[in-house]
Design goal:
206 residues, alpha/beta, Rossmann fold, 46% helix, disordered C terminus
Amino acid sequence: MNRKSRDDQIIRNMLVRVGESEHISQRTLAKELGIALGMTNAYLKRCVRKGLIKISEIPPNRYAYYLTPQGFTEKTRLTAEFLSDSLIFFRRSRGQYQEIYEYCVNSGWKNLVLVGASELTEIAILAAREHDVQIKGVIAKNEENTSCYGLPVIQSITISNMPDALIITELNKPQAEYDDLIKILSANRVFAPQILNIDRWPQNQK
């Protein structure tokens, strides 16, 4: 995600939250937006300068935040843009996972394991339903639950549970995940959608 997309996402979420509750505190906003308190304050000030949010002081020493008419319009615009981008992302990633599954089926590889718990995991599972493959589980190292999107969580791959192929669904550090996976399974059996922009040659082999 580039800087503008990140800014738009934070501002959209901020406008949505302020629209839901005018008495929300900056500390609560920061927690819900997943950003530092100082950054939350900076974004609030930006929204005030742009005329999107109005601040009123209420006793004792508290503030209320209101969306202006311009703020409502901007929230609607950013939400529509977000939904459009999300739909494009869904269609692209689903199509790319379908291509991976088609290749696996043609290669005779039907027992597959997904690597990473993210939004891509659910998309990959949906795409798999249209192909003659079996998703045996999800490798999610930091996942405390025993299941992920209805599939068993696998902590590690060993000789006894080695799949035919590994499919990357990790969004956080996909390149690092790929570099680790090709140490335990041949690179031609480790797949990732193009949207992850993975370099299929690890740095130490260039």
